Amino acid sequence: MPQLADIFETDVYGFDYSGQFPVMATPLVQSLKRAYTPTYVLYMSIFVIVLLGYSIGTTAVIDLAASHPEGVVGVVLVAPFTSGLRLLGNQPKKEKTPFFDRFNSCDKVSKINVPVLICHGARDTVIPSEHSVELHDKLKKPVTPLIVHGADHQSILNGAYPQTFCRIHRLVIT
Q1: How many Å apart are CA 88 and CA 67, to the nearest integer?
Q2: Which residue of the set 55, 83, 105, 129 is catalytic?
Q3: Is 153 a known active-site residue?
Q4: Which of 124, 129, 131, 136 is catalytic?
Q5: Which of 38, 61, 94, 107 has the fewest Cβ atoms surrounding its Cβ within 10 A?
Q6: Is 53 helix (H, G, I), strand (E, B) or coil?
Q7: In 67-161, which ranges are continuous DSSP H helix?
Q8: 83 among known catalytic residues
């Protein structure tokens, strides 16, 4: 997180999932929303807020952004996936998401009402970029996505591909 603050010359407020299992997804999202509200009220009401999620963290950011929190002006999703079961079954285009899929970004992303930038590595074998394409097609306010040729799941945010940070910075300053 300190690197992001330095790169964007801004303050960064970071959070992390305390667990990543489907049975815990609902309590985690609720606790994330509870954490966001007082933080916003106490510290961030004077700041421009752009939410950024990476990999499994994109599900938390999508859940939060879909609830239309005050002060959020943009969302960045790096290596997102459509849903947990779609990812496990290698079916990003599956028509319906089972009701018990706790990581269901595909059905929630259309509720986000601020600009959303999606970044994905073309060589990502953990989460194929087709998931990003599917999510992008469902956005209300899509920003032209960034598919980084040569980048994989880990390298897209490790500094090896500065175009990722340039595009995120462009969203932050607009």
Answers
A1: 26
A2: 55
A3: yes
A4: 124
A5: 38
A6: strand
A7: 84-88, 130-137
A8: no
C-beta separation of 145 from 134 below 8 A: no
pLDDT in tens, the chain (174 residues): 557 767 766 666 565 555 444 444 455 555 555 555 555 555 555 667 888 889 888 988 898 899 888 788 899 999 998 766 666 667 767 777 766 667 788 889 999 999 999 999 999 999 999 989 999 999 999 999 999 999 999 999 888 999 999 999 898 877
CATH superfamily of 2-173: Alpha/Beta hydrolase fold, catalytic domain (3.40.50.1820)
**Long-range contacts from 50-53, C-beta under 8 angstroms, 24+ separation:** 50/74, 50/75, 50/76, 50/171, 50/172, 51/75, 51/76, 52/4, 52/76, 52/77, 52/78, 52/168, 53/77, 53/78, 53/80
Copy the structure tokens of residue 172. 């932050």
* Domain assignments of the chain as residue spans, ordered by start: 2-173
Asked about 68 being catalytic, the answer comes back as: no
